[in-house]
Amino acid sequence: MKVNKFGQATPLTQESYEQISNNFVAEIHKIFWAIAWYTGERPQAILKADVGQFYLNPTRRICRGSILFPGNTRKDKVSREIPCHRNLEILLRDFECPQIGYLFPSRVRLGRCLSRQAIDQSLRRALKRAGLQGQGYSLYSPRRGFITRLNNLGFNAGLIKSLSGHASLSSLGRYIDVPEEQRKNAINIF
Length: 190
Fold this sequence. Notes:
The chain is mainly α.
């Protein structure tokens, strides 16, 4: 668990995702959180996303079948494409997105995207309203939850690596959370 900005983020569960999402005030922050949850992408790549990465036609809110995160916005510099989850598509169709440019434009700095600090502050406020502050949640919680969820559903590591965009299985392993209850059950099976 992350404590005082050290350690790994607590992975989201469906319940914690909804609890936090329901406590964001601004729609733009809820959409950011949903994209993070349903794609497992890193926060910075989401913030730098262009409207065209999500919409074929932003005016009519027609979503793409898959979302492309270009290499120039990602930590590993490798492009990543992921199918658009049906729940995310519904949220994107209802979202009053910009017509061009960043999906998350800054309201303060023209021509720039929303800053990581701004989305982090919004998350901190949502966590406080949800009564979840101090429990290790961060902007990386959706990514850890995405990967852990796929693992818990029994998908093989190769598929999870493909969906998460990790270069190696060893780097992927750091994102998979194994609860103590599962560890105890595994030992007691044999």
